[in-house]
Amino acid sequence: MSAPVEVDIVVLGLGAGGEHVAIKLAREGLEVVGVEKDLVGGECPFWGCTPSKLMIRGAHVLAEARHVDELAGRATVEPDLAPTARRIREANHDWSDDGHSLPLQEAGVRLVRGAGRLDGPGRVVVETTDGARVYVARRGVVLATGTEADAPPVPGLAGAPYWTNKEVVHATAAPARLGVLGGGPIGAELAQAFARFGSAVTLLEVGRRLLGPEEPEASEAVTAAFTREGIDVRAGVEVERVEHRAGEFRLSLPGGEVVVDELLVATGRRANLHGIGLETVGLDPDAGRVEVDEHLRAGDRLWAVGDVTGEGPFTHVAKYQAVGVVADVLGRGVRPADYRALTRVTFTDPEVGAVGLTEQQARDAGVDVRVGLADVPRSSRGWMHGPGNEGVVKVVADAERGVLVGGTVVAPYGGEVMGLLSTAIHAEVPVEVLRGMHFPFPTFQRAVETALRRLDL
Ligand SMILES: Cc1cc2nc3c(=O)[nH]c(=O)nc-3n(C[C@H](O)[C@H](O)[C@H](O)COP(=O)(O)OP(=O)(O)OC[C@H]3O[C@@H](n4cnc5c(N)ncnc54)[C@H](O)[C@@H]3O)c2cc1C
Ligand SMILES: NC(=O)c1ccc[n+]([C@@H]2O[C@H](COP(=O)([O-])OP(=O)(O)OC[C@H]3O[C@@H](n4cnc5c(N)ncnc54)[C@H](O)[C@@H]3O)[C@@H](O)[C@H]2O)c1
């Protein structure tokens, strides 16, 4: 092991959260070591947000083209994943991280490639190809190691050549038959994308509905759209066994079997915290997350950002928290982290944009709840949109305070439309003030106005 090297900050993991912290602190003149065992940039650009959204973009274009006969003439659509696969490969430079690692180093970060682990407060050991290196961080360590795909203990699954998000982004052609295990955001987004590229998709969700944590109305709208597009959605089913032989996956279900060519497992994520030395800094090594306070502090000279904090597994949360860590390390006017108006968007069609609490979460929190609903197909813009107009707007209000605490927009561009509810909840704008706003005709926003009007307040 080499002699310990003293620096100001060590950032362990250089994904969305860690990359931001490392670059900003180095630009402020701090001595920063950034440790990464895989690609600088992490999950989002290489195996997550970007490739999945590029697939979804191609898939949405196909869906729009399929409406031409009904709305605008005649079109023959021959789906081909190859151009999208090319865009994905170009976007992430063939899975090379120069586009991330070079700017990082230009900012002054010392990049150390290898697997790192905590070795007491302010100490990090990195296993590099040249042996172990030890760093002592005067100001502290920022833990930002993210998550990896988790797979359920279904007999026969381990060892079968199934896809996770790491493999699916390399697909260059849509399989004839695709099984998707898990109806969360990853499963739902990719099930629809592949269906639109021509795969016969079976989507298997163990819970009662797709997108379980979101409003039931959102699950209903998405399930209806999926079913109409020919996706075989099965919720409340548990796969009993998986067998892979002769190039096929055979999934045994109670009362039947599903046979597919490829199987995507999207049943949740596990934080990269195992073997990372949490016990050396007084934390529980078996915890599924690192608890942080409102300044992202997790212990003595220890901060954590991103998915490992369990505050919201989204790139925008990792970046939001990174801003907080930078301010706290530098001792600058720190804004305490606030998740009241946490936003999330599932990029299905219809898109599910949500912010704050669901109705059930608000009730569980003891809020005096009022709910307003509006059907998107019945709104002026929804009707004009025609095919593909499924959706609903739901607002959840706290009657006592006269403000919104949650909102969901399921609609074309639902994630964009939801933005106005996000502002309202973040700034606690009174519902009366919102009702007095101008809502341009004929935008999807007018369904939000209808939902606000229907609140019994
Ligand atoms: C398919 C998919 C689609 C997604 N789509 C969206 C989306 O549309 N919008 C959105 O907001 N979010 C999306 N997400 C979630 C988003 O990717 C994550 O929330 C985000 O990447 C979290 O950033 P992070 O910095 O916490 O972790 P990560 O991006 O996971 O980065 C952690 C880094 O730490 C490294 N690391 C781990 N252990 C060690 C170690 N011991 N030593 C050194 N390095 C280590 C890893 O190699 C990795 O590079 C998606 C995720 C997936 C999988
Ligand atoms: N648009 C976005 O922002 C976006 C997109 C993709 C992923 N992400 C984030 O990445 C994280 C991971 O996504 P995910 O969809 O893998 O996880 P998830 O935990 O959100 O959903 C997993 C789903 O799989 C189901 N499941 C679990 N075991 C199962 C089994 N044995 N059989 C069938 N279904 C099973 C669960 O009930 C759940 O519905 C999420 O938390 C998500 O927020 C975000």
Structure described in brief:
Residues 8-322 form the FAD/NAD(P)-binding domain. The protein has 457 residues and is of the alpha/beta class. The chain has 16 helices and 22 strands.
What fraction strand? 25-35%
Q: How many domains make up the coordinates?
A: 3
* Coarse morphology: globular
* Number of distinct beta strands: 22
Span between termini: 67 Å
Radius of gyration, taken over Cα atoms and rounded to an integer in Å: 24 Å
What's the CATH class of the largest domain, please?
Answer: Alpha Beta
CATH superfamily annotation of the largest domain: FAD/NAD(P)-binding domain
Considering DSSP H and I runs of 4 or more, what fraction of the residues is helical? Answer: 25-40%
Architecture (CATH level 2) name of the largest domain:
3-Layer(bba) Sandwich
Poorly predicted regions? none
Bound molecules: flavin-adenine dinucleotide, nicotinamide-adenine-dinucleotide
> Kindly state the mean pLDDT as a whole number?
97
- In the CATH hierarchy, the third-tier topology of the largest domain is known as FAD/NAD(P)-binding domain
List keywords for this structure.
22 strands; 457 residues; 5-stranded antiparallel β-sheet; FAD/NAD-binding_dom; 31% helix; FAD/NAD(P)-binding domain; alpha/beta; binds flavin-adenine dinucleotide; Enolase-like, domain 1; binds nicotinamide-adenine-dinucleotide; 16 helices; 3 domains; globular
Describe the structure.
The chain has 457 residues and is α/β, with parallel strands linked by helices. It has three domains: 5-41 and 97-148 and 270-329, FAD/NAD(P)-binding domain (3-Layer(bba) Sandwich), CATH 3.50.50; 165-267, FAD/NAD(P)-binding domain, CATH 3.50.50; 343-453, 2-Layer Sandwich (Enolase-like, domain 1). The protein has 16 helices and 22 strands. It has helices spanning 16-27, 43-47, 49-65, 68-71, 82-91, 98-106, 165-168, 185-196, 216-228, 315-330, 359-364, 380-385, 414-417, 419-426, 431-435, 445-453, and strands at 5-12, 32-36, 110-113, 115-118, 123-128, 131-143, 147-149, 177-181, 200-205, 232-235, 241-245, 248-253, 256-260, 262-265, 269-271, 297-299, 302-304, 343-346, 351-356, 369-375, 392-398, 403-411. The strands form five sheets. Strands 1, 2, 3, 4, 5, 6, 16 and 17 form an eight-stranded mixed β-sheet that branches. Strands 18-19-22-21-20 form a five-stranded antiparallel β-sheet, sandwiched between helices. The N and C termini lie far apart (67 Å). The model has no long low-confidence stretch (mean pLDDT 97). Flavin-adenine dinucleotide binds next to helix 1, strand 2, helix 2, helix 3 and strand 4. Residues 152, 154, 181-187, 189, 204-207, 212, 239, 266-269, 313-314, 344-347 line the site of nicotinamide-adenine-dinucleotide. InterPro entries: FAD/NAD-bd_sf (IPR036188), FAD/NAD-binding_dom (IPR023753), FAD/NAD-linked_Rdtase_dimer_sf (IPR016156), Pyr_nuc-diS_OxRdtase (IPR001100), Pyr_nucl-diS_OxRdtase_dimer (IPR004099). Belongs to the class-I pyridine nucleotide-disulfide oxidoreductase family. It comes from Nocardioides deserti. Residues 8-322 form the FAD/NAD(P)-binding domain. Pfam families: Pyr_redox_2, Pyr_redox_dim.
